[in-house]
Amino acid sequence: MVIHRPKGTQDIIPGTIEKWHYLEEQIRKVCAEYGYQEIRTPIFEATELFQRGVGETTDIVNKEMYTFNDKGQRSMTLRPEGTASVCRAYVENKLYALMPPAKMYYLGPMFRYENTQAGRFRQFHQFGVEVLGGEDPLVDAEVIHLLWDFFQRLEINGLEVHINSVGCPACRAEHRTKLQNYLLDRKDLLCQDCRTRFERNPLRILDCKNKGCQDLTIDAPTTLDTLCPDCRQHFDSVQRYLNISGIKYKINPKMVRGLDYYQKTAFEVIVQGIGAQSAICGGGRYDGLVEEIGGSSTPGIGFAMGLERILAVLENQKIEIEEHIENKVVVAALGDLAKQEGFKLVNDLRKAGIPALIDLMGRGLKNQMKYADRVGSRYVLILGEEELTKEIIVVRDMKLGNQNEVPKDRIREFIINNINSRENEI
Q1: CA dihedral angle for residue 308, residue 310, residue 314, residue 317, rounded to 10 degrees
Q2: Which residue has the higher pLDDT, 120 or 155?
């Protein structure tokens, strides 16, 4: 019986992985330009980290986490998101001792047991950015600008930035009371999840995807209605910086994000054509999270995006991003002695930084030429008994269709010069 991959996972195979490499290259490039350093955290953490950090009222903690007991009977969870882990690492490794703010990014797999759909998997990969130690609204604007810049480099069309302020604990308490009073007579009409949220975290009712709940909250009080003066000033400043940057945005009072740790600024990037969920990136400020998991009071803000969803958008918009690594040279060796000499040659070329391949299947010359064409080689170096005797190598240019006899001791110089001249022509 054939064993299949688990539901909600995928094999990223040659021919596809190059697109991932391209995305990762662009991520590392933009982060370096903005002064963000990479951080890598464990794939599994103590379950308590996510219970305290993400929030026990969230769907992630209640329904979607992959949790297990290890051999020491400690409860562990495959990380469902990256922010809580980064904050834990920030505290544990005393990164706060460095000159603030700490500007970090991460790339890696996350795990959530949820219904699979287009661009959404149970093992998925996130790119996220976190800034810890900076409370100025300029930090919020820079984070949003970084993600906008990244999407512009990918040439994605039809993007919208949605922003909101969910307030601080003080003004959130006032909003909580007003929202509960508004929904009190409608409580029985809410979905089962939102009836539970009514007492524990009513703000998340505004984020419910159930159409009935959405209809019931059309005229509900929003967090913008109850912002305290400090939160209002912060949100106004964020908007001023975004206006300076030229980023077009929409204020969406109903956007609250799905995690409990958000405060003040919240944002999403929306695009159509990737299934039921149109958000391809989301984030916000989480000034209380580090303290929640045992650190000192530390302001923080960040975002995360799923690479699978970005790739789905690129495919939908027919944006070609495939990275092509040109196999510039194939050594076609015929006979045992020629293969030995060819093996020396291909390694010599690789040492010179030239991508080079040699046939590993014992094919004849005709099939080796087909192989060179299939892998996109510009040059084929033909080496047989006659060439060994003459101490030459036949160099065939697959693009121009011509060939030259080159002395064996000058082959590396010949290939390097030709490659450089071709690249200069481009």
Answers
A1: 110
A2: 155
* pLDDT value of position 274: 60
- Residues 265 and 242: their CA atoms lie apart, in Å, by 13
Both structure tokens of 384? 């047989």
Q: Which residues pair with 164 in a beta bridge?
A: 266
Locate 20 and state its tokens: 């991932």
Tokens describing residue 407: 């002395």
Task: Please indicate whether residue 421 or residue 3 has the higher confidence score (pLDDT).
Answer: 3
| pLDDT for 426 beyond 50 | no
- Residue 197's H or E segment, with its range, is helix 192-200
**Amino acid of residue 404:** N
The H or E element that residue 27 is part of is helix 17-33
The CATH number of domain 329-415 is 3.40.50.800: yes
Measure CA 62 to chain center. Answer: 25
Q: Distance between CA 223 and CA 231 in Å, rounded?
A: 10
Asked if 86 contacts 130 with a C-beta cutoff of 8 angstroms, the reply is yes
For 83-127, write each residue's pLDDT tens digit: 999 999 999 999 999 889 999 999 999 999 988 776 679 999 999
Q: 17-168+228-316 adopts what CATH topology?
A: BirA Bifunctional Protein; domain 2 (3.30.930)
Give the pLDDT score at 341.
94
Give the pLDDT band (50/70/90) at residue 363.
very high
Q: How far is CA 218 from the centre of its chain?
A: 33
Domain extent listing, the chain: 17-168+228-316, 329-415
pLDDT, the chain, mean: 90
Which residues neighbour 410 within 8 Å (Cβ) at sequence distance 6 or greater? none
The Cα-based distances of 405 to 182, 332, 347, 381, 402 in angstroms read: 86, 14, 20, 10, 11
Separation of alpha carbons 334 and 19, rounded Å: 35
263 in Cβ contact with 285 (< 8 Å): yes
